[in-house]
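Progress note, sequence design subtask.
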């Protein structure tokens, strides 16, 4: 995605997320966490610190599965989704990582959540 196009779509995603969360502004990490919760599919009221990290991991795996880095394996006995790494992630500088994740989040909103982001 071209940078100006990605920037415009990213701003739209942030706008949609803010509306969904009563005006609360979400950042990249918050959106990854929310996507992890969405993929987890449970309505947990309280998560332990390590579980919150696992939810972030679920979000990251879901997002990067589009690029072939992870493959969904299924749910464990407790209903938590699991992925297997299928390809080694390339070395990316922090700014490049951010762009990759933003691009993946935009695609998630467009493809999985069916938002029209223009």
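Output:
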């Amino acid at each position: 995605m071209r940078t100006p196009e990605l920037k415009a779509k990213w701003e739209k995603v942030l706008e949609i997320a803010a509306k969904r969360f009563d005006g609360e502004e979400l950042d990249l990490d918050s959106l990854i966490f929310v996507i992890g919760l969405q993929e987890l599919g449970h309505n947990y009221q309280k998560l332990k610190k390590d579980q919150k990290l696992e939810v972030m991991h679920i979000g990251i795996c879901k997002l990067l599965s589009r690029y072939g880095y992870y493959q969904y394996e299924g749910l464990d006995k407790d209903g938590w989704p699991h992925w297997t790494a299928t390809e080694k992630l390339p070395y990316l500088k922090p700014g490049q990582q951010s762009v990759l994740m933003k691009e993946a989040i935009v695609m998630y909103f467009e493809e999985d959540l069916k938002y029209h982001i223009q």
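Helices lie at 3-20, 28-40, 49-65, 94-112. Work on this subtask will continue into the next period as scheduled.
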